[in-house]
């Protein structure tokens, strides 16, 4: 199993399907404005531990096709359900970071029978505020007009912590390259979709599957306090705070993140 493309739901999706699959399949959903290679350290760890890792490029990102206009989070969720149908995967552990975490919540809401367990990293369950909606719409307009470079330079110190940008130049360069390579039309469409996102408080309180919540200790976008709120809402949840990490702990502190993920998956096997 390896990198391949699939035409589904009016778009071409590029994805990796790797590993022997002895444990439950694990689907990992990247955030904005990244691609599936964000999860490379996790995929390596999962495959080495005997798991099947499925990592798609969301529509509008990476090597997948672009849908201009507005792409609601529900559309991303339905794409992943359709991918699982194609792969004949009835149920999987589903996880995501940031926007990918919000898409994971949409999968739990819309396709709960497909979810064996959840992994929610550095994400938020709250509906977008009126101020936030305006800011996302304005940013979508800006990305279409100016491209990704200026935006990437502005947010790198929040995607990673400033000290990790300095101390982990290879990681910072990889994150910057992903952001700069994103098609502005795809990024703008997702931003407009996120501007409409619903509140997922009821979705989380209804979760009955094991859930791992992960957050970087110094996340400036979705702080530890937000992760603690999610932990309080989800009955069977575990919270792990990753020291010396920001919004992308899987990239900033992969060894610590992977240990928490594999420990969690081990409890499912048992």
From TrEMBL:
Gene Ontology molecular function terms on file: hydrolase activity
Q: Which residues form the signal peptide?
A: none
Keyword terms, alphabetized:
Hydrolase
Q: Where is the AB hydrolase-1 domain?
A: 24-252
Keyword Phosphoprotein listed? The answer is no
UniProt-listed SUPFAM superfamilies = alpha/beta-Hydrolases (SSF53474)
InterPro entries linked: AB_hydrolase_1 (IPR000073), AB_hydrolase_fold (IPR029058), Carboxylesterase_BioH (IPR050228), Epox_hydrolase-like (IPR000639)
The keyword Hydrolase is annotated on this UniProt entry: yes
The record's listing under PANTHER family reads: HYDROLASE ALPHA/BETA FOLD FAMILY, PIMELOYL-[ACYL-CARRIER PROTEIN] METHYL ESTER ESTERASE
Query: What is the name listed in the Swiss-Prot or TrEMBL entry for this protein?
Result: Alpha/beta fold hydrolase
The species this protein belongs to is Streptomyces radicis
